[in-house]
Amino acid sequence: MCFDGDVQSKNEPTPATISFGDLRSAPDCHPECVGCSESRSAVSCFACKHLTQSLRNRAGFKCVSHCDEGYFVEGDKCGACSPNCRSCTKAEQCETCPGAKLLVDVDHYAHLDHRQCVDTCPPGLEADYTSAIQARCILKKNICSPGYYESQNSVCTNCDDACTTCHGPGPLQCDSCAPNYSNFSVGYCRPCCTDKQSPMEHHCEDCTLSASQRAQMRHRSGGLGSFYIFVVVLLVLCCAFGVILKTYANGMWNSSSRSNIDYTPLPAQSSLTLNESSSEEESEFEPDDVIATK
After folding, report:
1. For the chain, which terminus, N or C, has the lower number of CB atoms within 10 Å?
2. Cβ contact 25:35 at 8 Å
3. pLDDT surpassing 50 at residue 285
4. Please, what is the average pLDDT of the chain?
5. How is the chain split into domains, by residue range?
6. Helices (DSSP H) in 158-210: which residue ranges?
7. Torsion of the alpha carbons at 61, 65, 66 and 70, rounded to the nearest 10
8. What's the CATH code, domain 18-80?
């Protein structure tokens, strides 16, 4: 037995399009679209099923299943790599480089150019062409014994006291820390704190921390390091702006002071004085003198 309501529900037409408020989707959308204004177009989607990627040369976006070369996955979006990268894992962390550029592949505290593309390797690094995918800049092979590094003069020199092994001078160039030193919190080797010392006050390492605690501190210090770099850059920009502003103000003051200089005018001769002087000059030549000369 069928009820009227059942018959009506079976006879109701199935909507062929999706609506988004006042927008009504066109039929046969691109597979990556959730609703669209134009059929079979990835740049006319109302929303994306997987990833949203901005267009290179004009405003708008397109829906993709995976990010194109020159983009990286950032949540449900494709972020643009730096123009210096061919492909990347983050905006400024290149994975491959364009053309014949080399990738700096030294994940070390002292090398802030890690994952950057360069034309030539920085000092202390050498080119490595063993990878068929990407040529890299890596640390030079140390020909010296452990505890020594090769200087620029090709002389084996003692590592810093904070290092067991190193590739350059100072504690920032340690490859491994000496006993009673650690690099877990800030990335370079510092002495372990004594019982009464605080890491923040005495710039030392708490060598009693567990591996998980050390990892947390390293993550925290990395954020602080970025913050400190930002503050330093901001201060430099403020100082530069102050110098420019002061120079401009001095220039304006000098021009204003020049315009306010009081000039002492020369004494003006009246027309009467001029007439008297001209008459005196004429009186020197009498008519008799003129006749005599003739």
Report:
1. N
2. yes
3. no
4. 78
5. 18-80, 86-141
6. 199-202
7. -20
8. 2.10.220.10
